[in-house]
Amino acid sequence: MVRLSRSEWKAGYFKKLEKHLSEFDKCFIVNVDNVRSKQMQQIRMALRGNAELVLGKNTLMRKVIQKQMNQDSNLEKILPHIRDNVGFVFTNGDLSEVRKTIENNRVEAPAKAGAIAPCDVVVPAQNTGLGPEKTAFFQALSIPTKIARGAIEIINDVHLVRKDEKVGMSEATLLGMLKIHPFSYGLVIKQIFDQGCVYDPAVLDITPEMIIEKFAAAVRNIACLSLALDYTTLCSLPHVFANGFKNLLAISLMTDYSFKEAEKIKEFMEDPSIFT
């Protein structure tokens, strides 16, 4: 295979990213920290047919996007999010399905000293199977232990590492001794670009049922406020009509005046037994 010169590779990269920005109207902006080449290849294979993964230097990606902004000014919204170690997952398919594929392709990893913890690490109470000679190591980490059946037993759950803090050498060593792989790495979705809009991936968790529930709650609130202020709005109209009918019904029951909608109720009030 002929190795391309840097200028040829750069020209090819520009052409590829320009093509993707033109052909796809949706993309995930993903962080690729701690994702090794083998795992990246597996992710590409899993996405094949539904999405395209494009990586590259931030400076190159910015240049291509700035050029493409002449054709689509909405691409400017992506620029603030091109920082740190990021890439793009382009798709014209269902965003939820592609996100599921991305999230399913994570791999477990051991805790390494000096790494920033992506999550809290809690070591559960357990018999470690380690000999009593390791007791001093646990004491140095202030982990309460006892000897049971000739092995060290951790008495209580221990919050060993906190999210976003560096993993210490001792903590990494202990997790290795206990054969605990507390972390998992893969593409992390930071933002979504969707037909000119940029939004948080949490938006994909919103279901139609949740939207209906929120809308109904908002309508109820507006109706309550309208009734309290005696200011009629579209939301309060059903209540206004209902209250008006109740008032007319009350007048009808207290007088000889009647109307069609009140007749059955008046009959029931005069003789409930006829409805049994």
TrEMBL record:
<dbReference type="InterPro" id="IPR050323">
    <property type="entry name" value="Ribosomal_protein_uL10"/>
</dbReference>
<keyword id="KW-0689">Ribosomal protein</keyword>
<dbReference type="Pfam" id="PF17777">
    <property type="entry name" value="RL10P_insert"/>
</dbReference>
<comment type="similarity">
    <text>Belongs to the universal ribosomal protein uL10 family.</text>
</comment>
<dbReference type="InterPro" id="IPR040637">
    <property type="entry name" value="Ribosomal_uL10-like_insert"/>
</dbReference>
<dbReference type="InterPro" id="IPR043164">
    <property type="entry name" value="Ribosomal_uL10-like_insert_sf"/>
</dbReference>
<protein>
    <recommendedName>
        <fullName>Large ribosomal subunit protein uL10</fullName>
    </recommendedName>
</protein>
<dbReference type="Pfam" id="PF00466">
    <property type="entry name" value="Ribosomal_L10"/>
</dbReference>
<feature type="domain" description="Large ribosomal subunit protein uL10-like insertion">
    <location>
        <begin position="111"/>
        <end position="180"/>
    </location>
</feature>
<comment type="function">
    <text>Ribosomal protein P0 is the functional equivalent of E.coli protein L10.</text>
</comment>
<dbReference type="GO" id="GO:0000027">
    <property type="term" value="P:ribosomal large subunit assembly"/>
</dbReference>
<dbReference type="GO" id="GO:0070180">
    <property type="term" value="F:large ribosomal subunit rRNA binding"/>
</dbReference>
<dbReference type="InterPro" id="IPR030670">
    <property type="entry name" value="uL10_eukaryotes"/>
</dbReference>
<dbReference type="InterPro" id="IPR001790">
    <property type="entry name" value="Ribosomal_uL10"/>
</dbReference>
<keyword id="KW-0687">Ribonucleoprotein</keyword>
<dbReference type="GO" id="GO:0022625">
    <property type="term" value="C:cytosolic large ribosomal subunit"/>
</dbReference>
<dbReference type="GO" id="GO:0003735">
    <property type="term" value="F:structural constituent of ribosome"/>
</dbReference>
<dbReference type="InterPro" id="IPR043141">
    <property type="entry name" value="Ribosomal_uL10-like_sf"/>
</dbReference>
<dbReference type="GO" id="GO:0002181">
    <property type="term" value="P:cytoplasmic translation"/>
</dbReference>
